[in-house]
Design goal:
single chain, 2 domains, three-stranded antiparallel sheet, Dna Ligase, domain 1, alpha+beta
Length: 145
């Protein structure tokens, strides 16, 4: 889902504050990469981020994109998802949420929290487990007619 220009600006302002709070420099690379993630659908590989920023930032190397994405994950500005095939995707949504993977296109999209998942977590808690985090990935294909 695309974010509105207002939401992107709000997230950018929060990002600047986060960098300062963490004692990190506000660099052009960090700003460009963070913004590209906010303007995307939110589930990109480092290569896709690199492609998205390359036209306006031709000197930005793929290794810098990787390093910057890792830093942004470490400070909580982005989330990282490791897919079953080993691909790492970077997600602009850092709060707990679940994903749907279209097996034909490979597209990853966010799912709303479901009652069934919450109930399963409550059942585990009743068994004495302390749930630290949960992430569900649903895989499927478009219906064929």
């Amino acid at each position: 889902m695309k974010l509105s220009a207002h939401e992107i600006e709000h997230r950018q302002a929060a990002f600047l504050e986060l960098l300062r709070d963490k004692g990190l420099k506000v660099t052009q690379q960090r700003l460009v990469i963070f913004r590209a993630m906010q303007e995307s659908h939110g589930h990109l590989t480092a290569e896709q981020v690199h492609d998205a920023v390359q036209a306006d930032n031709p000197s930005l190397s793929l290794s810098t994109v990787y390093a910057t994405l890792e830093t942004l994950v470490q400070i909580g500005a982005l989330a990282e998802i490791t897919m079953d095939d080993g691909r790492k995707l970077f997600d602009r949504t850092t709060s707990a949420h679940h994903h749907f993977v279209d097996l034909d296109s490979g597209t990853v999209s966010d799912l709303e929290d479901s009652e069934a998942i919450r109930l399963d977590l409550k059942a585990l808690a009743r068994k004495g487990y302390v749930i630290e985090k949960a992430r569900v990935t649903v895989y499927g294909r478009a219906r064929r007619h």
